[in-house]
Amino acid sequence: MTAEPLMRMRLRVEQDIFVVRQLGREVARAVGMESQDQTRVATALSEVARVLLPAGQYTEVAFTIEPIGVPTLQVTMAQPGAEEAARLADQLRQVGRLVDTMEVDDGGTGTVVRMARRLPLGAPRLTPDRMDEIRAELGRHVPGTPLDELAVQNQQLIAALDEVRAQRDDLARLNAELEETNRGVMALYNQLSQELEETNRGVVALYAELDEKSAQLRAASEAKSRFLANVSHELRAPVTAIIGLGRLLTDSGSDELTTEQSRQVDLIRTSASDLLTLVNGLLDLAKAEAGRIEPNWSEVDLRAVFGQLRGTLRPLATRPEVEFSVEEPAVARLRSDEVLLAQVLRNLLTNALKFTEAGSVRLSVRRVDDDIEFVVADTGTGIPHELQERVFEEFYQVPGSKPVSGRGTGLGLPYARRLAGILGGGLWVDSTPGEGSTFTLRLPFTS
């Protein structure tokens, strides 16, 4: 349903262009438009009227309010006669920038121009009573002369120029502030760039120092490994000779020794044997650190390995207070290095027997997901939680711990962990002081 127009008028002569301009401004003011929008609507009406009047006899103008959705002032200018929508649309292209929408088309009896401008959000609500009041005010409106309209236009132009000048001054001020801000940003950028460049130089120097320290550390580690290997190799011959000479002195074919001499020779042989054990451990550890141990992968029969460990270590479990048990493996075969695997388990079992005074020492194996775990559990003295990682350091022994049998060198567990890494697995301990320790060797399971 089309709303009832606020007002209608007919343009016949050029003087009516001034009349429709005044009327358009009055309508725009009455419905609540701001001053600039009033000028835009009035200017758009006068321009359309100026184009339409020479092309026809008269032009019908209607002002309507569309209340649905966003309130809009709509102006319809219809010119009966020839249909010239295409030509007029081209002439009025610039005028369309003054309003929100403009349509030019050929109606049933001639050309129709429709313009629309949205009312501002703060405009008064246009109730039916208010619409009737506006109609009454417009009916009482008396058009001014062209000179009056020219004066109004001049006033509007002056106001527009003042506004443009104010906007230009604001723009100049904003440009000055922006320029000042840019100078500050550039100064900050230069400062940050210098700081970043200095930081980068420091980081580069630090990395160079770290590389140098790493090279020195590698050289020191290699030197230590060479030293251990050379010293161990050089010590093995004299130590072996001492053991041999001690054996000759106590041989039945040699001159008989006194009781004291025999005891002292036995002490010499025992000390030499301990020293040979330490030398062999150092040599093995040096080989492992130098990466000179290459695993020989093959199918390992765990029942045979467990049987060998049971037989070779049984003589060490001589105390009746300790139950030594090597359980039958739950997993029959494993792809690994038989010699290295047996060495790791032997070191763990030997260490457990040394520090277990009563209770048990057990070796078992179990399948865990895609891995296999070898577990050596004892009821020995145990290891405090904060020292459980330190037992894998070379020559470290838990303070206050004393082996029940034999002597510890502090190399068995570090060597066992390195061999575990060579085999592709890991070694760790879980222990409670006074209750015992559980060493777990975990290897990938491939049969």
From TrEMBL:
It is found in: Cell membrane. Residues 147-209 form a coiled coil. Its EC number is 2.7.13.3. It holds the Pfam family HATPase_c. One of its GO terms (molecular function) is kinase activity. This is histidine kinase. PROSITE patterns: HIS_KIN (PS50109). It comes from Actinoplanes sandaracinus. It catalyses: ATP + protein L-histidine = ADP + protein N-phospho-L-histidine. It comes from the Bacteria. Keywords: Coiled coil, Kinase, Phosphoprotein, Transferase, Two-component regulatory system. CDD domains: HATPase_EvgS-ArcB-TorS-like (cd16922), HisKA (cd00082). Transmembrane segments: none annotated. Residues 230-447 form the Histidine kinase domain.
